Amino acid sequence: MSAAQKRLGQVSGHLAGSKSVIAPTEGGAAGSGRAKLLQKNPDDIVVTACLRTPFTKGGKGGFKDTAAADLLIGAFKALLERSKIDPALVEDIAVGSVLPPGGGATEFRAAALAAGFPVSAAVRSLNRQCSSGLQACVDIANQISAGMIEVGVGAGVESMSLQYGPGAVTEFSELLESHPEAANCKVPMGVLSEKMAKDRNVSRDVQDAFAASSYQKAQKAQETGLFDEEIAPLTVKWEDPKTDEVKTITVSKDDGIRPGVTAESLAKIKPAFAKDGSIHGGNASQISDGAAAVLLMKRSTAEKLGQQILGKYVAASVAGVAPLLMGIGPWAAIPKVFEKIGINKDDVDIFEINEAFASQCVWCANELGIDQKKINPKGGAIAFGHPLGCTGARQVSTLLYELRRRGEKVGVTSMCVGTGMGMAAVWVAE
Amino acid sequence: MMEFRTQGMNGYAVKYSPFFDSKIAVGAAANFGLVGNGRVYVLNLTPRGILAQQTWDTQDAVYDIAWSEKNENQMIAATGDGSVKLFDVSVPAGPVQQWHEHNREVYAVTWNLQTKDTFASSSWDGTIRVYSPERPQAILTLPTHSCTYSTQYSPHSPAVISSVTSDSHLRIFDLRTPASASNHLVHLIPIHGQPPTQGPSYNPLRPRHPPSEALTHDWNKYRDTVVATAGVDQIIRTFDIRNPRSGPVALLEGHKYAVRRITWSPHLSDTLLSASYDMTCRVWSDGSTMGHPTPQAPGQLPVPGRQLGEMGGHTEFVTGVDWCLFGAEGWCASTAWDERLLVWDVRATMGP
After folding, report:
1. Ranges for the Thiolase N-terminal domain (chain A) (predicted)?
2. Predicted TM-score of the model (pTM)
3. pLDDT at A19 over 80
4. Which of A249, A363, B57, B60 could form a disulfide with B80 if both were Cys (CB 3.0 to 4.6 A apart)?
5. What ipTM does this complex have?
């Protein structure tokens, strides 16, 4: 290189190094919360691959005979295949799951090994009820920013077909029973949601309308292939209940999405938890099976490894609410994360708020003043299911692929959490 | 505003004479300093405009100039071929002496303001050299191991030399320390360090300042522990070297491209002037005389300082700016790649 070229390189370095605001920057004024959100920094925690298995109906769907660990193997294998990352670089894997005995710690570690991760990849399971999948991703992100690991996987899995049942909660001791708020922690979800719907005046019509729109959005999304990017098809063994014949099937679509659901058709269903109630199978989340996984690392690492960056994780919050009002969790958690990073609801393009029950989701959305069009644009748990520990990790791929498809940027994932909590996280698609 | 055209030469440095209020030296280079000759101008401000008293051509680009503090006719020039040349106005033929010590472009020169018997240069070769005009070779080499864009003698001590480098650090050398493996280095201050924040709340969107090349710095003329730095990340920072680990004291943001040169006012302890690739010169207060500043964002300590004025008269990268030491405070000169030297009054650029 000639001396002149070297000098030119030096001077152009002075200019290239500038994050100049002379070039138009997205998101308006450089000082605004959204503009700061969209900035790219080498120590951002980014998502370089995210996906989920299809969700299938508990007890009768495509995964009714598939163990949770096998679902997880499917998600892990697909994640390795899509990202083409060297599995030896993954240092830790967190798996959110609610129902398995022992938290699933043993079989999830085994699943990682079976999926092709070397013994050097550590695995843990964790349980924060319905937000376990999100908590897993957030934990991994925090481990990366704290410098504990370089590359990690946040995941979630649930086989409600095989593990849902009365055994999920230990008998309460006398001390717990004698403390009123503590005792409330074991009130069944349906019962307390019914109570909350009544308390907060969420009428059945409103719930049914919200649920019907979830079905309609999901049906349309499925028909137009909007789930194709996030779903990794999975081949499993399945026993035909009619013939007892065991077949090998490949599941590539959510099977809970019922076509042609309308508010009127939902209005005919009998309430499930109280005679005069408003909650029924059609306006509550479905019992399902599924797994999801998210590959996380620093932007600098991703660039070094040549990984495709789908989006970045920004921040998360967790909030506690009264156990009987667990459905209002997102209402508590979302403003909390907004405050941390100085943005507001108008800065967000899509909200993925888990539809545990239409009543609580619609109440939170209305209370926060969120535009209905921004909520769950591809439908939600009412239409395609809520495999408890998986949902939080599922929302990441649902959100990022939809933001990317629309050319939008900022998304929030949030859910209510049993025993009275809420979690929310902010993500930016790239 | 007065103007002088450095026809065919793109300006790189401008310095007011420390002896005359009407004399200015300009360092310039052909072809934007990439290839070709350099030129040193000695200009006089006269009632008939700015007139060249003397020019010397050099083989390679001239990137910086420093007047001798001892002899009103002499100045040194930093050139692209690695040499430092001493010129004397009474010798029009060429440099009276030169030192060829650096392996790469010399980007800065500074004259000792206290003892006035030494000067120093810094280069892209990662060293600072200290010279005496009486000696044919440099008398000391201070390694920085990084492309050194700027070096300065402290105006308060004859033994303190500072530099900023492309590795985003401010270095302070004290020549009174014994010669040792540290090569007189007493402070190594990361320029990109976090400004102090308040409260326990961790905000992932807090302003982050990754390391970036530092191009220029200057010692405050009144407060002997205050140094300002600036460079590629467009932010001018002030540091108090009594507490080097606390990060910057003031962050002055506003330039839209890299800052090429900053210089503290010789008259006012809080005022400094900057020149940038964004084609502007700006005048700033670091807030040290403004009383209690107000917080800019929640969770962040109030950052003092603000821009006082802006001069947009140049039409290319502004590379040099200097204050006039005499007369009414506020007169200054700037030079740019637009082949123009401008002499102007800072007060005219300031708002009400």
Report:
1. 45-300
2. 0.67
3. no
4. B60
5. 0.86
